[in-house]
Design brief:
It holds the Pfam family TruB_N. This is TRUB2 synthase. It comes from Penelope pileata. The protein has helices at 32-42, 78-99, 109-116, 154-167, 198-219; strands at residues 11-13, 21-23, 27-29, 46-54, 56-58, 67-70, 129-139, 142-150, 172-182, 185-186. The chain is α+β, with helices and mostly antiparallel strands. Strand 5 and strand 6 form a beta hairpin. The longest helix is centred in the middle third of the chain and has 22 residues, at 78-99. The radius of gyration is 20 Å and the shape is globular.
Length: 220
C-alpha cells in the first residue's frame, strides 16, 4: 500500500527465537515498540516445552547436528531423570536468590513456591536461570520437559538436555524447543501464518492491551 498514511510503520521483535525453535514470538507495532522495551524491563518468565532423545550426542546438542557418539540408555528411569531435574531446580533457585532483593524470607516454603510460579524474579540482567523444570513425558529413548526460565537462549536449553544425558551416564540430544509462554503472551494469543492479515493483527493487539497494561503497572 502506498500513500501518506503508510510512509512509516515501525515493527520490533521481542525475545527472539532461533531458526530451530518455534512457538510464541512477540512483535511490537508502532507504540508497541516502547511497550516491548518496558516488558523487557519486567524480566517476566518464559515457558518452553523441550523434547529430547537419549542415546546420542551431537556437536550442537540438536538431533540434526554432527554425531559425536552413541551411548546406551536402557538404565535410565523416570525416577532417575526426575532426581536430576530436582537438582537442577534447586541449584537454579540458589542462583536466583543471589540476584533477588525481596522482603520475603527466601528460606521459607512460601518463597520457594513463589519462585516456582515465577513471582520472584530479578529486576536486572542475570545469567540464564531456570525457575521450574518438570518431566511431561517419558518413553525411552524419548522424553519431554517443561522449563520455566529467565534470560535464556534456545541453545542454552539444548545444552541443558545434553547435560541431563551426561548426568544420567548416557547422552541426549534436543529434538524440539517450543516456547509456549512469553510473559503475558501464550500460544492462545499466537497468530498462525494464515492469520497474518490486518484484521487479525488488530484484534490480537486489542485482546492483549489490558494484560500488558496491568503487568506493566504491577511490575514497574
Amino acid at each position: 500500500v502506498r500513500g501518506p498514511r503508510f510512509t512509516k510503520l515501525k515493527i520490533g521483535a521481542g525475545h527472539r527465537l532461533d531458526v530451530k525453535a518455534s512457538g510464541v514470538f512477540v512483535l511490537g507495532v508502532g507504540h508497541g515498540n516502547k511497550l516491548l522495551s518496558l516488558l523487557h524491563d519486567c524480566h517476566l518468565t518464559k515457558v518452553y516445552t523441550v523434547a529430547g532423545l537419549f542415546g546420542k550426542a551431537t556437536e550442537d546438542f540438536s538431533d540434526t547436528g554432527k554425531l559425536v557418539e552413541k551411548t546406551t540408555f536402557d538404565h535410565i528411569t523416570r525416577e532417575k531423570l526426575e532426581r536430576i531435574l530436582a537438582v537442577i531446580q534447586g541449584t537454579n533457585h540458589k542462583a536466583l536468590l543471589m540476584y533477588v532483593h525481596s522482603n520475603i524470607d527466601m528460606k521459607t516454603q512460601e518463597a520457594y513456591e513463589l519462585a516456582v510460579k515465577g513471582l520472584i524474579r530479578p529486576m536486572g540482567k542475570t545469567p540464564p536461570i531456570i525457575t521450574a523444570i518438570k518431566c511431561l513425558r517419558f518413553a525411552l529413548p524419548e522424553f519431554q520437559l517443561e522449563i520455566h526460565c529467565l534470560h535464556e537462549t534456545q541453545q542454552y536449553l539444548r545444552k541443558i538436555v545434553h547435560e541431563i544425558g551426561l548426568e544420567l551416564k548416557s547422552s541426549a540430544v534436543c529434538t524440539q524447543v517450543r516456547r509456549i509462554r512469553d510473559g503475558v503472551f501464550t500460544l492462545d494469543d499466537a497468530l498462525l501464518r494464515t492469520q497474518w492479515n490486518l484484521q487479525s493483527i488488530q484484534n490480537a493487539i486489542l485482546d492483549c492491551q489490558l494484560r500488558v497494561k496491568t503487568e506493566l503497572e504491577k511490575t514497574l
